[in-house]
Amino acid sequence: MGNLTDIRTGSVVKVNGDPYLVTKNQFMRKDASKPVMRTKLRNLITGNSLDKTFLAGESFEFAEIERKKCQYLYSDGSSAHFMDNESYEQFEMNTGDIEDILKYLKDDTEVYVTLYEERPIGLQPPVKVTLAVTSTVPGVKGDTAQGGTKPATLETGVTINVPLFVKEGDKLVINTETGQYDSRSSE
Question: What CATH architecture applies to the domain 4-55?
């Protein structure tokens, strides 16, 4: 059971059996009344937000959240398959829940998976990934880095805007947080 003053931004508490991340907290005490902790919470499974006030003496518990370095193996359409880098156990996640991340992952990419009660609930890709351009319109002589952008399809199937000088076969560094071109890779 937790103590009211242990509830801080960044901690994870259980509410109705689900893990909630504390995104904001404020301790309050008014005159003779019991102290309270007002919080804003985000459900780590559904993403829904919740305002909750914890009262002094109210029982609650912190959720056990674990982050593991894993390897993305492949996707078969409905499931994405991963392997725990320490135990070599394989598990899967629903592709619908992580489709925005999957478009930047190629086989064997290392990622961090968030687990709650040994169940995967979140996925964090590397901030930058290197992907090859599989198709784009050819550049024109004189195209420079300042000259604008054009669409390019990468090896994972995602299409992003790239500088005009980029050509098919180029390896590009992509920022997975923004989904944008970062630089050409020297690999």
Answer: Roll (2.30)
**Domain 128-184 indexed as CATH 2.40.50.140:** yes
C-alpha distances in angstroms, 118 versus 31, 47, 103, 146?
43, 19, 25, 48
pLDDT tens by residue, 102-148: 999 999 999 999 999 888 988 999 999 999 999 998 866 555 556 68
Report the side by side order of strands in the sheet with 159-163: 159-163, 149-154, 128-136, 171-175, 180-184
d(CA 166, CA 174): 13
Q: What is the pTM of this model?
A: 0.75
- CB 62, CB 12: distance < 8 Å: yes
End-to-end distance of the chain based on CA atoms, in angstroms?
Answer: 51
